[in-house]
Amino acid sequence: MSELPACPQCASAYAYEDRNLLVCPECGHEWSASGEAAVQDEKVIRDANGNPLADGDTVTVIKDLKVKGSSLVVKVGTRVKNIRLVDGDHDIDCKIDGIGPMKLKSEFVRKA
């Protein structure tokens, strides 16, 4: 039986093999079993025009957006400053003046 390497994230000795990956049951980290350093593919979030977005950018809303659960509407042309990118369906976390904190989809904004 071959000795499996410890987890590179938490140094746990309980790693196990799952197809071509090694998995740590303690922290959930997965890495390549081939011994090569695996390069993590970061998901690039792009606006409606295809420009890459980053944390702290300012964006402009390109479509009237109804705020779910209220009668408020985010109007076309609303500038949103200091966005934060998050994982999920709504990938922009922001605070809009007059409305408050909310999440937006990147397909409805363009980089300002």
Automatic annotation (TrEMBL):
Residues 3-32 form the Protein YjdM N-terminal domain. Residues 45-112 form the Protein YjdM C-terminal domain. InterPro entries: YjdM, YjdM_C, YjdM_N. It holds the Pfam family YjdM. Belongs to the YjdM family. NCBIfam families: phnA. This is Alkylphosphonate uptake protein. The lineage of its organism: Bacteria, Pseudomonadati, Pseudomonadota, Gammaproteobacteria, Oceanospirillales.
